[in-house]
Amino acid sequence: MDSTALAAGIAIVVIILILFFLSGLRIVNQYERGVIFVLGRLIGAKGPGVFWVPPFISRMRKIDLRIITIELPPQETVTRDNVTVRVSAVVYFYVVDPNNAVNNVLDYYRATVQIAQTTLRNVLGQHELDELLAKREQINRAIQAILDESTERWGIKVTAVEVKDVELPQTMQRAMAKQAEAEREKRAKVLMAQGEFQAAQTLADAAALISTEPAALQLRYLQTLTEIATEKNSTIIFPLPMDLVEPMSRLLRHAADSAGAPVAPTQPLARPAGAPATPPPGAAGTGNIPGPTSAGPTSAGPTSAGPTPDPRG
Q: At how many degrees (to 10) do helices 108-125 and 136-150 cross?
């Protein structure tokens, strides 16, 4: 009877010891660490695998060491050139020191999200809109450096910060579209002007080279005719050399000048000897040339309408 009770007591003690031992076993995954507190005192991080802690007086908190991705909600901020924008970003970080992540901050995840939002607004407020759109890599590195410095005492390592989206007002989008269109038109006009300049310079060089050999110009005419004939056109324009056209144009101009020249006045008839230099007053309105008159004196009065007497009697 005594031996039976003794054996039962030993079995109970063994079972209690086994249960006590099993209750102190902890299992931590490869990507986790267990931060142990014994009677409220930090012992340290253990794991991965199976380990034993004093039961009933110990507390363990698991910390994930994998990279955590935080998608920050859109933050409305004002840039340095007074443009209101809404910016969303993504933050990548992981825990490098589980002890500090548990002992130095109440909730390292929430704390990292809040400081990331604040830092994002502060950094964007120090840059202009053009820098925000063009120098995004530089802004990402600046935000990452500030976050890494702020979360270092929490045992957090910020690996990357990426500005994901930038929402602009509709008026600003239209203004930027007009600016981009004007810039493209300017580039197109500059390229066209440069092309015309190079083409004109090349044509000048070709003309200078062809002018040294007159036969080269004739060969160029024949080549042009050959190119036109291959297209089966019904009309062929044959260019004439300026050496042939210039004499014809001179003749036409000379003929036009001759046709438009004024006519020379007619020479007056010869006056008979002894005739007065001027016609008599009575013959001024007749328009006829006066005949020869006698050398004797003439009457100043008006002539009669009768016949003139014959001087021979």
A: 140
